[in-house]
Amino acid sequence: MAPATYSRLISFLQEDLAISPASIAVAERAGGNHCRNHKQDPSSLPMILWQYGLVTLEQLDKIFDWLATA
Fold first, then answer.
1. CB within 8 A of 29, min separation 6: which ones?
2. What is the C-alpha separation between 13 and 62, in angstroms, rounded?
3. CA 23 to CA 28: how far, in whole Å?
4. pLDDT computed for residue 40 by the predictor
5. What is the pTM of this model?
6. Is the pLDDT score of 3 beyond 90?
7. 34 φ/ψ angles, rounded to the nearest 5 degrees
8. Cα–Cα distance between 20 and 34 in angstroms, integer?
9. Are 35 and 28 in contact (CB under 8 A)?
10. Whether the predicted pLDDT of 41 surpasses 60
11. What string of DSSP letters covers 15-56?
12. Neighbours of 7 (CB within 10 A)
């Protein structure tokens, strides 16, 4: 994923879904370099957020919808 797209994803998570920066940081740490590497599979961060209970299934669906159009 391009760095600009990753930045837009983070903005979407924070602004549209009200996911805290702390929750995003937890998911990034849990994913290690995989989440910070912009060539990654774009679904890893949302899946880690969900696995850690930081987003609901409804929010996860919205994230995947956003990724599909990004």
1. none
2. 10
3. 9
4. 52
5. 0.81
6. no
7. -60, -40
8. 20
9. yes
10. no
11. HTS---HHHHHHHHHHHTHHHH-TTS-TTHHHHHHHHTTSS-
12. 12
Place of tokens 């949302």: 46
Please give the Cα distance from 40 to 18 (Å, whole number): 24
Place of tokens 């599909």: 68
CB 7 within 8 A of CB 14: no
pLDDT at 33 over 50: yes
Residues 10-36 as b or e (16 or more Cβ within 10 Å = b): eebbeeebebeeebbeebbebbeeebe
Q: How many CB atoms lie within 10 A of CB 69?
A: 5
- Which pair of tokens denotes residue 29? 């740490």
* Tokens of residue 27, six digits: 């998911």
